[in-house]
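Shape matters. Shown next:

___
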Amino acid sequence: MLLDFHATFNLHRDVIPWIVTQGAPDSLAKCSRTLRIVNVERNCNVLYTWKGTENVTKIGLYDSVTKQNEMLYSIDSEVNVISCSVNTEKTLLALSYCNSSCEAPSRVLSPVPKYLALLIEIRPVNNLKVLKAVDIGVRVQFLYPGDDKHSSSESHLLIFSEEKYIEKFHIDTDKNEDKKVVIKNPGQILKERIAEDFVWAQWDMSGQRLFYIIPKRSSSVLHCVQFYPDENFKYVLEVALEICLADEGVSLLGDLHLHHLRDVLSLSLVLSVDLHITEGDRSDKEVSKSNQRASRGTLENDLTGSGLCLFYYQPPKEAQDITYTVAFLHKGCSKTFKIETPMKDTSNCKLKRLSFINLGSYVVVYLPDHFFHLINTKYPDLMCYHLFLSDEDSRISGMCSDCPMQSLLNSCVLESCTGIIFSVNISQEKLLKFLAESQQDCERLAMLHCFLLHLSLQPQQEIEIIEWICENLSTCQTFDPIQEFIVASLHRYLSSETTYLDKLLAYTSVPCWDIGIHGVSCTTDITDMPVMKINTFKGFWEKFHIELEYMKHSQQQFLYNTHMQRRDWCKLLSQLDTGEKRNAVYRRNVLENAKKVLLNMNMTKCGRTVPLIQEEDYLQKDLMGLMMVKLRDHLSQHLHHVGKNKIEKIVLDFFSKQLDLVCLMLEVVWRKRMLDSSVLSFDASGNPSEYFAFHVMCRISEATSQMCMPLPPGFQTLHLVLALRCLPLANLLHYIDSGALPLTEAFVVKLLKELDDGEENEKLKYSIIIRLPENISEKVHRLWDHAISNNFIAMKYVRKLLFRLNNKEVTRQSLTECSPLCINFLPLNYLIMMLSDVEDRALNPFEEDNIDAAFLEEIALKRTSVLLGLH
């Protein structure tokens, strides 16, 4: 199983020893049997109840910070507590219970109400007030403001009634002469109706939000009410749902904080809430601190947006495949997943065990012993970014399979049958193990995506991911893991830079996925977009509004397109030598941009084991600078709220980080294979470790070329040296001719200086020399004192001399006239006469290249002899 469960609270571990120390005459056996959790507040304090031997029902509280228990209240009768809540100051207790001594109400009005909702003064214990005395169930919940400025003299209480209404009570308190906290004007407690005529409601404790659904003729409408720290509330959202809630035979999926008003309802609303605490929304602050104590930041804070998802599931009436639906309200779509399962027993008891666990960017859908699905709520479009496990891979060890897990706060679940609260996180260690053992590309891609975009990777985990990528380059058939690593890592590093940036940068290298996943089928439907009922947004709703605005304009192309810049780069390179002033200025700006990127690289500021030579590669700098211009224009077009300097920084960080990622991959390979700078020498053949490094560099070069991405300085030279050590000459030349190994000036200089002119080396040098681009060959030929280089120097000089020569100003001698230099071969004779004439008319024509006519004559004669086959 991919999840780590850490028990943050256990009734038998954390409560029973305390009860024993109280010295009460209660039977320990009965206490243990009746002890159960009735609520978990926003600050993670746990409320629990148990029954003693003296016909009393007791309510206690476990403080999650101090790890201490305290008695809140005792009822002098055995009653079934339905719900319970305590205010922030722990001065007021609200509870609702069913009087078990009462018979079920008849058609005639029952003289004794079966259900009571009480408001009790508990700090210290004083009076109580009956808020509700009815024959139908009610639930209670105090609001938690979540800030330190809240006045302790007032509290607010929500009451959920199965008569389809929700009320908010405003309770003022005061201190009397004995400094006891009492309710001010208990007979005149103000209340107001929040919602009515609904069939389902859920209270989101962490965000202090109320969701409820009102049925219509053929559909339903979901509403949301947001409660703010100043005790005001607003109706913020409504959205039409294509579901009908009047169907009979639908079983209940219970949840401690899912207040279902009808037993035939099977909706489970799961929020994908932004974990980042903004200045305007501190609603999750207390909860996030508690979660951090339990699990040190396994999930990375999400700065890029908020999602709202609705999960619902209808158990089949007879043996058939299991189907559940996820409505991604922030995406305007829903997905219905159909799972093939050999399960024959489809009784309600078994199917009620389906659990939904909110992990922020993921929601776990889990049916014990059958399947485990990790639904990606942030990027739900492609099936390959959801993870579907079944059989042995889906089992959670150490958990009770007969008891469904009830989702509480984010990344927190309750196992009600054992009274244990777990913090839940995706285990990086287990995920990496699954990644190494997986045989399907869809699973590999989903796990790699989870690592790179959703988990806060430590340096060691990032190294392990790179090692897996390098070892499995040939295993993945449907995607390039190097491209996915670079694209997803850049998205994660930069998305938090500014609002809306995550919509402009690609998060994956896979444009589409149409490959089936065994055992799972999915259909996608377009749904209505939510309608926001407020004009100003902050916190969660600000990010949620950004998501909605993006979806409204999603028909436009927002993502940065690398293919267009590749064409522009090729066009630029063809124009760089035209001599136009505009192009010269443009190129100078491009090169300045590239220098800024190289100076901003982190890998250049720390020691590294990879021997990358700091060389001048103008083609790579041209590509880098041009890409910066294109990305800057792209961001400026859409990020109108961001200043020019901020965009410049984003662009600079984008390409610097891009080069850093390539350097990091090389670092991992070098250290894993224990390579050093000796790979730069030409005096030995390559070993298996060097061949592995060469193979990885080939795949990096191929991946970056397809993405039109520049490579760090020295990469291509190192790649060429490894190729020379590892490949036969014929294969090396094939790589060069195909463009897989572009020749660099640093490599050719090193080759000519370090190798002698033995037969094999001369053949190698010649093979390289004749393949050099002209801009490199002009610089390196003088380094090799050889006939081939002399021939090239002479031809270059003649070409330049003839280009400058004005034919009209040359007085040619008759070809029949003889001269001391004339030989009996007409073409060569003509060339000598022309060069001699130019030499006579120039003041010092060979001063620049230190070449005289005799040298040119000798070279020309040898060249002519070779062409005629006389040599």
